[in-house]
From TrEMBL:
SMART domains: HALZ, HOX. Belongs to the HD-ZIP homeobox family. Class II subfamily. This is Homeobox domain-containing protein. One of its GO terms (cellular component) is nucleus. It comes from Populus tomentosa (Chinese white poplar). Residues 43-63 have a biased composition (Basic and acidic residues).
Amino acid sequence: MELALSLGDTSKPFKFLDKTPKLSSKDLGFCMGLGSGVTTSTRSHDKLGSHENNHQEDDRRVSSDPPLQLVLLPFSPVPRRHQPPSKTRFPWLTDNFSWLGFEFSVVSEPGSTEGSGRGFDVNRLSMDDADEGAALSSPNSAASSFQMDFGIRSGRGNKRDLEAIEASRASDDEENGLTRKKLRLSKDQSAFLEESFKEHSTLNPKQKLALAKQLNLRPRQVEVWFQNRRARTKLKQTEVDCEYLKRCCETLTKENRRLQKELQELRALKTSQPFYMQLPATTLTMCPSCERVATTTTTTNPSTSTTTSKTVSLPAKPRLFPMSHGQVQAHQAAS
DNA sequence: TTTTTACCCCGAATTACCTCA
DNA sequence: GCTGAGGTAATTCGGGGTAAA
């Protein structure tokens, strides 16, 4: 792997960049080239491939990509929030810029330095259907994303270096008065993610990449979304469980009062008619699938040898998600 | 075979940004 | 315009699992 960095002066281009489209040096405030000589899969992808062999094909494709050439225009120190919220296009971005295919075809058009020069939109690369909220960029996220992609290329042992770079860049951002900006997912993106979450609450790497590609998001964003979504689900389930336990407690308290009262009555009856009736036997049963709890009080009249049962059902435990097919079968079998 | 190391993924906690009343 | 609350994207941290050396 070759890494070349040039600040300001691109009069001496790096050799391995010769294969890539020429840039107009007058527009460049920062030029970085990354030539990957890696021909094998990274460690992480090897590991991934052990789970899913069909990823190896993708890995080979990744490693054979042409060298990366990244051009950043000198950015304006004006915070984005002070910029007009209009949809912004960056004519120097070609349409085939892609995060997921690792095909960075960023080309600078001569004379295209208009605008703030804050760079490209990492969240919505295809801006045609982007709403304004989703079209806002996230500078810090962009930085971390690039580092992640580099890490995939460079493989083992570079994580610390990348962290150092990230920390360095973060400090640079602080110096420039930049703070992390927050992406707002569009309704369509959220809806799609929700649908995916209903199908599977966790993602394997392949699903993550596919989702990211489909939604024009970075895989990390998809991953974070699913993590946060699981956390929200768990929190909601905890609240629901809490409510359920409260209702159970109330029901059981009522039942306990009733039984105490009944016991008193029976004791009183026993003193007057000692052989009339045995004490009731109360059992608790619970449906294993829906976790519905029922208390059954069975009383036997020895004189008539008849048994009477009274069942009080507690509310079924609410679930945020419907039962699976297996759970339904188990429930039907149990009932 | 066991240990060490590096990496990845996840949950939990937290931060920080954004929107809205 | 200011402010506080709520939602949520993003970050940080620690633990567990895995593969390679």
